[in-house]
């Protein structure tokens, strides 16, 4: 049985394909179209998934969509009546609902099935149930509490429940317009970061400030904790609440967020930071206060969920689950003993969640054993890469190196100060590069952060970089020990190790680690192991392979990024392209694609 899961007409549109409950492929549309957070019908992602499965659209039996246009319909009507919502806003919403409900026909038309009837049934799975399924059903837990928190989906911003075996039960939820994601986004915009997905900038900025008690108290006026274990917003701080028209889609397919904060927020917190203005201590302290209030709200909801379920395991998902700083503190600040955050807890992961919810919860099918499911995207063989390189005019030395020499050559370059683009295997699904589409650097370099932010990534100087560590060394370098395969938690680095790996130590002594195991990422594990043998440090700096764009997906994307930045070396499977002279090796292995 083939199930095609889709997240459509929403930020981070994506698709996945399952056969009898086993994931074959999953990818986000942005990786193919090269538009960040692309929001529309993910036809390219659908086509990729079908190709990976070796089937056609007519072979699909079920299409699941991670939206239910009729969810909380009563609340939507009540909201319209209470707020005297304009006819234009109602018409826009009706058009959106029609688009969601005609997905099968729209996909068929886009893929060339003009008028051809398809046998696939379409199942609409509510947004947060899709989030919950994307976490629980891929977790190692047979039973767990589940907390889903984001901006908004299907008129819900937060949903709590629990999972047991192949069923998910919902306990309660928070309804529009009350949203912890909206709170964080509103302050993100207020701090001068206006783009969809900029919230992680505030998270990265927050350690540079101090959560001043008076400022924290002011932020607590924006969100109020309720006796039922949930929260509500003080809506005076937010604009256009009645219309709810905060997000639009530009002609390229990129989501655009209109200002969420109101004049009342400006009155209480002062003038918002404008583009180009310096970040002051006040801005940093406000970021710290917002982060603290967000964390404590998450802890409050999680602890109450623990009291309601009595379970030791917790799955956290939704856009707010991308707040890895908060994730790293949940176990220490609640009664839960184990926490799982999926590799794609954001909206892109709801395509997977919708398929899993239908297959397990609605069909009653048993779950598969736990395994890492982060590497589900496109892949290229050495032959395919060689054919591509042969058609390019590359002004640098190109060489094909066997594995036994490749890891030694790359780690030698890293030790000598090289910045390396590392392109291997299947692309990751989710917002993190986990060693298959990564830029890597020696973490001992004190200048690495400035070098990468200014010359490669071209982004804000306060943004941190992540340490990828061989899992067996976690306790030696971090104060907390946990499996963190998806780079979803921030832990404190041991004080005695911080000077050893300054490039991946944030200003507050923390690092957003990725624990690497051979079974999950054999080539990346081999590379870190080779670096460890040379340096005694089982860590590499890992950042996503991109430059103000979606993470690279193909050899072409990788080569173009390499050529327009100051990276020293690009590794495409076994092919090495280097701006630096490569050591003389076996001449039979040399492959020269230079064109003069």
Structural features, described:
By secondary structure, the chain is α/β, with parallel strands linked by helices. The protein contains 20 helices and 23 strands. The strands form 5 sheets. Strands 15-23-22-16-17-21-18-20-19 form a 9-stranded mixed beta sheet, with helices on both faces. Helix 15 packs across helix 19. It is globular, with a radius of gyration of 24 Å. The termini are far apart.
Structure summary:
The protein is an alpha/beta fold and 596 residues long. The chain has 20 helices and 23 strands. The radius of gyration is 24 Å and the shape is globular.
The computed structural class is alpha/beta
Shape by Cα distribution: globular
Number of helices: 20
Main pleated-sheet profile: 9 strands, mixed
Low-confidence stretches: 586-596
Mean pLDDT: 92
